[in-house]
Amino acid sequence: xxxxxxxxxxxxxxxxxxxxxxxxxxxxxxxxxxxxxxxxxxxxxxxxxxxxxxxxxxxxxxxxxxxxxxxxx
Length: 73
What we know:
By secondary structure, this protein is of the alpha+beta class. It has 2 domains: 1-42, no CATH class; 45-73. It contains 1 helix and 4 strands; from the N terminus they run ββββα.
């Protein structure tokens, strides 16, 4: 189910959808702790018990983080 603008997920306030794909739905959100825009991925419920999917997602997230953070290493 798509999220709507204004919904809060922890410290993140959803602003708008960015896209959807194999990893789930991606939304632009505001991180209220850091006062900056971030991308939030909402994973499909069917992936909760799929260890292989979780490993792939962690690897994907780490690659994205390292590509945008010069201190990654």
